[in-house]
Each structure stands twice: as structure tokens, then as C-alpha cells.
Amino acid sequence: MTARRAPGVSVRVLARILARVFVGVLAGSVACASARASDDAALSIADQATAVPEEARDWRFYAEGALRESTRRATGAVVHGERLSFDLRYDKAIAPGWRVVFADRLDMNRYYGGAGDGNVNTLKEAYLSWQAQPDRIADLGRINVRNGVATGYNPTDYFKAGAVRSVSSLDPASLRENRLGSAMLRGQALWEGGSVSALYSPKLADRPNPGAYNLDLGSTNRRDRWLVSVSQQVGALNPQVLLSGGEGQSAQLGLNLTGLLNDATVAFAEWSGGRSRSLLTQALAGADDTAFRNRVAAGLTYTTPWNLTLTAEVDYNGAGLEKDAWNALRSGSLAAYGRYRTFVTPLQDPATRHSLFFYATWTDALMKHLDLSAMVRRDAADASRLQWIEVRYHWTRVDLALQAQVNSGHPTSNFGAATDRRLTQVVLRYFF
Amino acid sequence: MHARIREVPALIALVALASLSALAWLPGEALAAPTAQAILTASDAVRNPDKPFSLTVTLIEYRNARQTDGNTLNVYSKAEAAGGQFRSLIRFAAPVRDMNKLMLKNGNDLWFFDPSSKASIRLSPQQRLLGQAANGDVVTVNLARDYRAELAGEETIQDGDRQPRKCHKLVLAGIASDVTYHRIEMWIDVATSRPVKAKFYTESGQLLKTAYYRRYQPQLGAERPTEAVIIDGLDPNWVTVMRYSDYAYRDIPEAWLQRDYLPRFRPE
User: What pLDDT was estimated at residue A311?
Assistant: First the structure.
């Protein structure tokens, strides 16, 4: 029986195998034909591609209009505002080895009944650069020197204090871009894998000048300052060491480090340390409490396969207030609290000692040319939060963005004390 | 074309090419078939000029036959003296919103610089700035440095001009840990060593993209491809055309190929 069945089974098995082979071959042929057809179609598209290379220009100029609505924390009143901005950047080689850089922004704010109403011009940069040799360069003029590898807080960004004249967005990238440079003389020497840079920024004015079109050197050049930075590639770490000092301050040492953990993750750490007074005694002219204080920002940036980039950062400001001292200040004299906040805000330093920062950006999210960005800052001392989100669609010359910002927390907390509880704005930008 | 690739010094490439040419004149009995690695090296030499150079890359992206994006990049490349790895500086020339932004690529060391914010930001290889194209797709690479090639036979395939072309089929496996693609199938013209077609795969074997190299023209002393057509592995209606123009030899000082030079970079 077995002997009789065996051939029958074998025939059926053989027939099945043949059928599968046939179907497999047929499927393979169909797949090959399909792949070839799609390749042919792609090549036909490429045959008809007509775009020609574009030349980069020496200048970039855009106009930006914004409509905004905010809700006041104190009264719940809804306030409307408009802004029209013009932003120019010009960077041109005027002769072999010589280069001129000019960057300026004009914000025309109309915040009915709100602070910040009026025109504010920000001369971001205006300097002359001389490249005596390919690896020897000198600059003179107003320069936006920006150091630091972190995203939310940059302890080694020694020239950020007082540099922001007009805030059009709380996006850290916007705050870094739309600010005053400092007037200085700078020299740089480079070699393979490293460089050294030294600058001197003199005192040129006694106090800030809020005039709409004033150069406002008092915000950036109120005292003599200097900075030396050295970089040398060591493996994949790219360390940068900085030493900063000036009139009325002890030298501050800084370090920037970045490393690649894997194909998708970058680790970064930024540290600055030196003897200084606490922010509180500086703000309130208190007793000298000079001590060695550290400032640190460290975190990770991870990118998913679909190009969503996530950054998480831990920030520490050794000159800021600890939780107990912060709570004491908040519950004490309102005048002292106000003076502290007024002093700290332009420094772009965290008011308290510990905070967290998260940032996410997703380019071509869900559809081509649609970018989503979101940011959360959280103060560890009072659990207050700043939340910001942006949806941006861009065409060839036009960007359209919707931004929303929510400040949560107690009215005297770090972020909860902001004038506006909520703010939304629509921004339209046109590149000429 | 693909990232994190180290280049054989030009001299070695030329020697390899010369050796292949010399072998062609030997009697059949004495002729040893070129090794897969030699074929790949010869193919690299077709794509890559032998001295520091610059070129313009125009990317045109299509979805469902409709143009959805366009970029123009100026690329400056130089091979490392030790190891021969290519380093590249990429300047965005268009669109206008990205104009004069820079990317520095030195193996897996990737930096992005925005002249407006003066921020030099370190990127991971997975972070793409150019849509379908990986950052490594737009720069010069030398596959023979980072991949071990095996000959999988000869095949006559349709080339980028829809003509039959007799090719060596090579299967490339990444040697270095920092390669963009884990496995590549590559078809190289038997007669000219020109790269004709390549398929790029993930570690799990998924097809990422197919590329055709075409429009060969004389550039910097050799016939080189002036166009690559990239077809997405999952969505064949997603097509990127990369055109190469303005080839020129350039003096690129070593000091320029580092993060700290990015704020200084200005093409002549």
C-alpha cells in the first residue's frame, strides 16, 4: 500500500514543486518586468529634466510679515499685534583676500497696548575680513561670535549677553540669528584639523541705547573683553577649549565636545567654569559671594530613519538660584523678584540652577516641504514650562508658518511669569 | 557618490587602470581575469578625478512625474593624503532660503553651518538635508576603499540610455563600519570600466535605491558620468536626478577641511 501510494504522492509533490517553481519564475519575471518598466519610466523623467544650476548670490534678503494674538496672564485680555520685518545679509569678496560682511534686520512691531511696540533695528554684523594667507585671517568690525555645541543653552556663548534687541520667535535658532554682534578685532590661524582664534572687544559705550535705529554698542561693548579659543580634532571628538575674560570678571574656561554614538545619535557637552558672583548678588547688588561656578549643557540628538530629529538636553547654571533660594525670592519682595528677572533675561542664562530642554524637528513631515518643530523648556525648580510649536510649509521663495506658544506654571515661576500665557502667530516670509 | 568612502590614491587607481589595459594585450592563456576589487577600483577612477576638484551638483526631485524639489550644490573634494578618504565641502547655492549654508563631510564627521546663525551643528549620518539623497550621495566616494567586492558574473543589462550593455556584476559588502550602504550590487561596463547601474540595500536586505550612471562626457581628462538617476526602492515614482557640471581642479588647503573654517569659507 505504501509502495502504491508512494509514487502517487511523489507525483503530486512533484507537480506542486513544479507549479511553485513555475509561479515563482512567473512572479520573478513579472517583478523583473515591473522593475524594468519603472526604471524606464524614471529614466524618461530624467530625460526631460530641464533645471539648470543656479549661481549663489552674495546677498540674501527677505521680508516677513506676522499677525499675532496673545492672551495676557494677569488680565486674560486678548491682545493683537502685527510685525513687518526686513532682513538682509550681504557677504562679498571685494578684492583678493578681502571680504565685507553686513547683516541687518528691521522689526516694525505694532503690539497694541503691549511691550515691544515700535521699530527696532538690529545691526547684526558689519565687518571687514582680510585673509592674508589661506590659513591666516583677521577681522575688524561688529561680529556675531557664537560658540557652543548645545541647542537650548550655551554656557560658552560668551557674547550672547545683551545681544537680543527684538524677539520675533523663541526658537533658539531665531534667538541666535537675530542678535547684535560685538565690535572687535579678531585673528585666526588654522592648520590641518585645528585652529586658534583670539579676539579683543573694547568698551565703546557706557549703557544700552534703546533707540530704534541706534547701533546700541552699549548692549554689546559696555566693557573690555577678550576670548581665546583653540580647537584640535582628536579622534572623532572635535574638542574646543576657550578662555574668556575682561574688565570686572575673572577668566572663564570653556569646553565644547561632540561625539557620534552611532549612525543616528550625536552626543554633545558644553561646559564653562570660573570664579564669578551669583546672578542674585549681581542683580541685587548683594554681598560679594564670588566662588568657582560651573555652567553645563549636555545632551543627545537622535534622528529617526524618517528624518525626525529629537534633542534632549540637561542644563545647569551654577550662578543661578537653587530651588529653595528661588522659592524664597518668589515669595519675598516683589521688587527684588522683578529686579532679578530684569537682570537675568537679557543675559540669556537660566534663572534657576537646573532645567531641561527638548527640541524636535521633522523635515518633510507627512508631506513634502512641510516641517514641524516643537520645543519644551522645563524649569526643575518650579516645574514651570515653556512650550512652543511651529508648522512651516515652504515653497521656492515663500515660507508660511504657524507658531504657538504656551507658558505654564505659577505666575511667579520661571516660565509662568511671562506676560503672555498663550501666543499664536502666523508668519509669512518672502525671499527676494 | 556614496558617503564615508575612502579613496585609493589617484596613483593607485591609475596603476590599476594601466594594469587592466596591459592585461588586455596579453595572450588569452596568460590573461588572468581582473579581480573584482580591481574592477571596482577602475570604476572608481572613472568617477573620481585624480586631484582636488570642485563641481556643481544639481538635484531635481520628482514625485509621480512632477518636480517637487530642486537644489544646486557646489562641492569641493580632496582625498586625504593618508588613507585616501575623500573630504568634501558642500555649499548650498539654491534654493534661496538655503543659500550659502555649508556641509562638511569627512567620513562620518559631518558638520552643518548656517551663516545667519553662525551655528556649526554636528550631524549624524542618518540626518538628511537633501530629501531622498543621503548626504553621502552628493559627495565623491571611492567604493574600493570601504567595500569588499565579489564578482557575481557577467550580465547584459539595459543601461541608463536604454541600450544593452555587457557588464561585470559585482556584489559589494561594507568593510568599514561607517559605510552608507551595507550591501551594493553594481554593474560595471566590461569594455570601459564605467559604472552603469547600482542597487543599494539595507542590512536587512531591503532595496533602498537604484542608481543609473549616464551621460558620459569628457571631464578633467576622462569620460565621466554627468548624471545619476536615483530611483527609490520602495516608491519607484520617487526619482532624483543628479547632474554634475563645472568640473574643475582646485587648490583646497588642508586647513579648510575642518569645522572652524566653515564660517570663513568663500568660494573664489
Answer: 98
Name which of B223, B250, B241, B246 is nearest B77 in CA terms: B250
CA–CA distance, A42 with B230 (Å, rounded to integer):
8
Taking an 8 Å cut-off on Cβ atoms, the answer to whether A134 and B255 are in contact is yes
Give the SS3 label for residue A11: helix
pLDDT tier at A8, thresholds 50, 70, 90: very low
For residue A5, pLDDT beyond 50: no
- B180 to chain A: nearest residue by CA? A263
How many beta-carbon pairs under 8 angstroms link A with B? 183
Chain A partners within 8 Å of B92 (Cβ): 56
Averaged pLDDT in 10-residue chunks for chain B of 268 residues: 34 35 37 84 92 94 92 92 83 94 89 90 86 66 90 96 97 84 95 96 92 96 95 93 95 90 87
Q: Which residue, among B204, B214, B211, B201, has the nearest Cα to B236 in the 3D structure?
A: B211
Distance from the Cα of B58 to chain A's closest Cα (Å) equals 6
Residue B8 has φ and ψ, to the nearest 5°, of: -65, 140
What average pLDDT does the segment A186-214 reach? 96
ipTM of the complex: 0.87
User: A301, B253: Cβ pair inside 8 Å?
Assistant: no
CA atoms in the 13 A half-sphere facing the CB of A109: 22
**Nearest residue on chain B to A125, judged by CA atoms?**
B116
Query: What letters, b where the CB count within 10 A reaches 16 and e where it falls short, cover A196-233?
Result: bbebebbeebeebeeeeebbbbbbbbbeebbbebebbb
pLDDT of residue B9: 36
Query: Does the beta-carbon distance from B69 to A135 stay under 8 Å?
Result: no
- Give the nearest chain B residue to A88 (CA atoms): B116
